[in-house]
Specification:
globular; alpha/beta; about 450 residues; three-stranded parallel β-sheet; 9 strands; Pept_M19
Length: about 450
Amino acid sequence: MTFPGSLPDVAERCGRWAPDSLSASASGSSDEKPTPRRPRWRIALAALVVLAALCAALALPLVLGGSGRETPEQRLTTIRRMLRDSPLVDGHNDLAWNIRKFLHNKISDFNLSAGLEGLEPWARSRWSHTDIPRLRLGQVGAQFWSAYVPCGARDRDAVQLALEQMDVIKRIVEMNAAHLALVTDASELLDAHREGRIASLIGVEGGHALGDSLAVLRAFYQLGARYLTVTHTCDNRWARAAGTSGGLTEFGRAVVREMNRLGMIVDLSHAGEETARDALETSQAPVVFSHSGAAAICNSTRNVPDELLRMIAANGGVVMINFYAKLVTCGEKATVEDVVAHINHVRRVAGVEHVGLGAGYDGIDAPPEGLEDVSRYPHLLAELLRDPDWSEEDVRKLAGMNVVRVLRHVERVRDQWRRAAVLPGEESAGARRGDCVYGPA
């Protein structure tokens, strides 16, 4: 008896496509001994085993985060969907300094929303990578805009320059309110992202911008500054820069404590190792490196050694990876893969909760190939999804949620200190050039 679907039945129906031996066996014309039939339950069991193996093979990429089976286009689609739900937060952009350099902060006719790629002098500048159309393509959800103060202003007009740079950032945001929103805390950041606007935060770059005054620090906070980079490429009276020896003075520690009290993030990019170590030991809130890399990959004094990476993990902070080729490869050129190497190193040493993005666009003249401007962030994140060790949740943390967590923690410390009625700091850095004490008239 021939059962429908049995091997003889298949041979009869398939005719000439069936193997000769199978056809001969089915017709009984072979002189060979007939092969004993396997019991049907064994055939069914074997089929079930094969089916289970096939299902497991198809499900494995899902378990690993969906990356192994996807094409580059599919990974990019995944990232774009993710960034609609969860903000990409970049730690450092120097657009405001270019506005000062090119326009002297005269922006009444400056249309950032129209794009700068075809507009002189932006179009021929190697330092220009940012405008609103490209920010939109890059799905940037939140940007820390740098109010940069050059070292040449130290002990001169540094405070004034910082105020002017904060002013131009706020004016740019107001002029482009359909796309940008000035925010000062984590809740406002997430609200702006849900509204479809790019949350804009201010970071003051260079501790010399304080003029050695805690009162100025407090004024910066009231004006919207939410981090202070404690040094730039120069020392100041209370902190040493990268490549120099020495750490924080007592006044420097007072600056860190006052930032904790205010709810301002301590930024250690550009800081010397001893300065960074002192700040990490002093701060009761998480700190960041807003635009740095891993020293183990590129041994620059601007990058973070493994010892400090472990301290960052213990502190709860974040190292935000810079895209400047000289900090990525210690050379003139870099690629997306080179940036990924820094990200993966920080992840291995500090953990996935302690790595973020701080490209430094508009303050660098050698971005990596494939990361030429602010439009390219999704391509970097899609590259990470190639690696089965990176789940979608991991990428969300790197893209921005780690920084949101830091903001929330800094705000929580601020609120705790307020409840404890901690008074504003009154420490002094000591005598400064030009200090005067006036008596009664």
